[in-house]
Amino acid sequence: MTQIPQTPEDGRDLDVQPSTRTAWRRLLRAASPRPTKGTLLAGVLAVALGFAIAVQVRQTSNAGLEGLREGDLVRLLDTVNQDNSRLSDEIVRLEVQRDELATSTDLEQARAAAQQRLDALGILAGTTPASGPGIVMTIRDPQAKYTAAMLLDALQELRDAGAEAVQINDGRVGASTWFADGASGAVTMDGRTLSRPFVITAIGDNNTLAAAMEIPGGVSETARRMGGDTTVLIRDTVDITALRPLSTPRYALPENQASPSK
Amino acid sequence: MIPALGLLLGVIIGLALQPTVPLWLQPYLPIAVIAALDAVFGGVRAVLDGIFNDKVFVVSFLSNVLVAALIVFLGDKLGVGSQLSTGVVVVLGVRIFSNVASIRRHLFNA
Q1: What are the coiled-coil residue ranges (chain A) (predicted)?
Q2: Class of A130-240 in CATH
Q3: Most buried residue among A1, A150, A159, B1 by CB atoms closer than 10 A?
């Protein structure tokens, strides 16, 4: 039997230096069943340990709320309570709204709400006449070099500046309005040739709209570059009387009509 | 031999009975298990060192479990329960590793 020196890694092996074989023999001797009082006691402890490990592993694998600490539970409860009260408020609010709409006793109110939506949508779609503060801009273009693209730019500039309703000459501008260049410099809008000068009427914040027309590289400068000029009149009230025909969409169906709500 | 069989027996009993851990014991059981494991590995190392003593093993096993549970209990009362649990687990983990390293050197000389 050879004594192989061990590498002292933690210093504790310096005094006791058993060989590997001694260690194995000791392990075997310890493993042999000797029913002394000490081993039996150790066995009982081992049973307890194994039991605890199995129970704890099972507990952890299906740990729910019961594994959390008090602080975590309180926080969780707070969150749930907040959610609950918020959602209850919403339920109450929506129920009130539903009752208002559903009961015929409040028909007037429902009608008013519907009318309000109708007006807003009518102005948006161009099916309703509108009036309000705005600007009247005249684009003079004697050389007929102003193109459809420039007119589209002007319209976009107006929309960016917050124009809510726009009319060009006697045509109302809507969501589906389109421009095209016609023969010999003519510009058409929605298929109708626009006569020069273009008169654009827009309803919105009139000062903002007027300022937007004057920005460098904007509508006025483009007109000047094309050999024309623009005049912008700021009015407290302008009237937009031109209307667009109401077109029924061929493909798009409103969601709540496709699947009627109860 | 008997303790190893006991460990196996305990696991089987635990799996078979499927008991639920009582609420008051839940924070302490994992820590107690780690502490007991530390005692077990310490015992194996003592066997290999030739200095194993039944009484020392039983006492160290029980005291490890009790002290670990006490530390967690105290930590819970002081409001630092989770941090102390982590600390206990780290310390016991380090001890288990060093014991395992010693066992490995005894058995495999490496």
Answers
A1: 77-104
A2: alpha beta
A3: A150
Phi, psi of A134 (to 5 degrees): 175, -160
Q: Which stretches of A137-226 are DSSP H helices? A: 148-160, 206-213, 219-225
CA R_g for chain A: 42
Mutate to test the interface with B, among A51, A69, A72 (most CBs of B within 10 A): A51
A-proximal residues of B, 29-68, CB under 8 Å: 29-30, 32-33, 36-37, 40, 43, 47-55, 57-58, 61-62
On whether ipTM exceeds 0.90, the answer is: no
Phi first, then psi: what are they for A135, rounded to 5°? Answer: -130, 155
Question: Scanning the structure block, which residue is given the tokens 């009387």?
Answer: A241
Give the number of other CB atoms < 10 A from CB of residue A227: 13
Phi-psi region of A126 (alpha: psi -120 to 50; beta: other; left: phi over 0): left
pLDDT in tens, chain A (262 residues): 444 444 444 444 444 455 777 778 877 777 777 777 777 888 888 888 888 888 888 777 766 666 677 788 888 889 999 999 999 999 999 998 888 777 756 677 778 888 888 888 888 888 888 889 999 999 888 888 888 888 888 888 888 888 888 998 888 888 888 888 887 778 888 888 888 888 999 999 888 888 888 888 888 888 888 888 888 888 899 988 888 887 777 888 877 654 444 4
Number of Cβ within a 10 Å radius of residue A51: 21
Q: Which two tokens stand for residue A219?
A: 């509508």
* Contacting residues of A for B6, CB less than 8 Å apart: 42-47, 50
CB contact under 8 A, A23 and B106: yes
Residues of chain A in contact with residue B98, where contact means CB-CB under 8 angstroms, are 10
Domain ranges of chain A: 130-240
Q: Does B104 touch chain A (CB under 8 A)?
A: no
